[in-house]
Amino acid sequence: GKNALNPGGRNGRFLPGLQGMDGSYWRSIFGDALRAARQWSAEQARSEGILSALVEFHSRLQSLSVANSMQRSIVGVLDTEGTVPCLRAKHLRGMENLLSALQSCITRFEALQVELAELHANVWQRHGKCMAQPETQAVQPVSTVVGAGLGLASRIVLMAPPLQCLEWLQELDKTYSGELLLKLQLFDSISYEMEPARLGQVVRLWNVQPHVRSAPLERLEALVMSLSDQEKQ
User: Taking the CB of residue 8, how many other CB atoms lie within 10 A of it?
Assistant: First the structure.
């Protein structure tokens, strides 16, 4: 029958030049990619919390700005002992700390993107070494091994061809590369003086993560689960 690893049914064929990229290998590779994606999601949640606090500090800073005559008249009653400048300085420091924390998130995003890019590059390199002949670059399901090294637990199963798996890994690499570039641009656009509406747009776009779609991740999760289930049988 058909499943996530066997999009074409039972008509698979064994590729003798790709024994080094069997089912156990792909399960490990996709497992590593999914771990990086999960770490990205955790960092995304952390960064969203930081941005939420940043919006609050920015709003207060706007209200305390002595450059705005209307706001100055509203809070002027507090300013008999220099309260407003003191509060403004504290909020500026708070924003600096939040921006520093957000920069740390960016650094971790960059490290995860590098991890995915290196994983992608290493798989392409291994694919080149394993290729016996150009015509083995199949687009049909292929027979492969799971449980290699486990003796009787080893099984021949059908899964997507190596080039298809490479395309899925490339898609994931491209996804997070694009999202990282967007986050760098959004981070660089944040300033103390920016309009609240503009900051709100930045935060919404950051939180939406337009480049990160659920379908590629769900597909890889299904692949890893299918390979794991095959090995347990």
Answer: 14
* b/e burial code for range 87-110 (CB count within 10 A of at least 16 → b): bbeebeebbeebbebbeebbeebe
180 CB-side CA count, 13 A: 21
Cα–Cα distance for residue pair 137/134, rounded to 1 Å? 6
CB 12 within 8 A of CB 212: no
What DSSP state is assigned to residue 211?
A: T
**Strands 142-146, 155-159: pairing kind:** antiparallel
Looking at residue 156, its amino acid is I
Could you report the average pLDDT of every consecutive run of 10 residues in the chain (233 residues)?
43 48 86 96 97 92 62 51 72 90 98 96 86 50 50 59 88 95 97 92 96 89 78 51
How crowded is residue 45: how many other Cβ atoms within 10 Å of its Cβ? Answer: 10
What's the confidence (pLDDT) of residue 154? 55
User: What is the per-residue pLDDT across 69-89, written as a single tens digit (0 to 9) for each?
Assistant: 444 455 555 555 566 677 778
Of the candidates 103, 114, 119, 98, which has an alpha carbon nearest to the alpha carbon of residue 183? 103
**Please, is 182 exposed, middle or buried when counting C-beta atoms within 10 Å of its C-beta (0-12, 13-18, 19+)?**
middle
Phi first, then psi, for residue 210 (nearest 5°) are -60, -25
